[in-house]
């Protein structure tokens, strides 16, 4: 099988970290969303991928699961309340027809570190809030999560001419 591949411009440094972020408040936005079935198949949850949009942890991602249909009424109520609060903080109306409506809008995300026996520490979202003022347009990383080097006029010309 013939396969051509050019590594030019690919950042191969391993700057991805899976260590939890410190407890605190972060400016973030939803960059991906998926509706999934629970493992038991008895419910549904929305998995949001949120990306930090500024500061020291810019471009780090946080995965947040919101139970939407669950036989455990408490879990369902928490997930639905968190989704409703997020929608309000993003300035959305009371109804949403597609999770894409959550994407690309900045909000404040509160995080804590969860310690569970038998698992590595991870982040939990503790709250969301509306941003209080303008947030600079983020320099979002490409889908692979790695920032691309700045292109200059000299660098954009091919080396062969």
Kindly list the characteristics that best describe this protein.
alpha+beta; five-stranded antiparallel β-sheet; 161 residues; disordered C terminus; 2 helices; globular
> Over all CA atoms, what is the radius of gyration?
19 Å
- Lateral arrangement of strands in the main beta sheet: 3-2-1-4-5
Low-confidence segments, given as residue ranges, are: 140-161
Helix/strand order, N-terminal first: EEEHEEH
Q: Output the number of helix runs.
A: 2
The structural class is: alpha+beta
Helix proportion: 10-25%
Could you explain how this protein is built, in words?
By secondary structure, the chain is of the alpha+beta class. It is 13% helix and 30% strand. It is built from two helices and five strands. Strands 3-2-1-4-5 form a five-stranded antiparallel sheet, covered by helices on one side. The protein is globular, with a radius of gyration of 19 Å.
